[in-house]
Give the backbone structure.
Amino acid sequence: MLMLLFMALSGALLCNALPHLITGLRGERFFTPWAKPRGMGTSSAFQNFLWGAANLLVAVGIITRTATQEVPHGLMAICAGFLVTGALLSIIFGRRVSGG
């Protein structure tokens, strides 16, 4: 059960890595946890790239560690973590970008 939670976390981290990597590589500012005001402000493109890369590296680390243990339903847990995180982030970022 714990391994499934770690795999769901890896899916969430993979999903969170995407917007940060993309905006960082495009040279744009985007929200990060350490921006001021916390969680509402934006950080530089470089900081976003680093945050996205960190998310990606941790996710890959979790997946490679758990993949060797042949966890049943592991891929579904990764997908569930990805989909839930994507849905939540789209709502949160949508509100922040539109100002509502």
The longest strand covers residues 30-31.
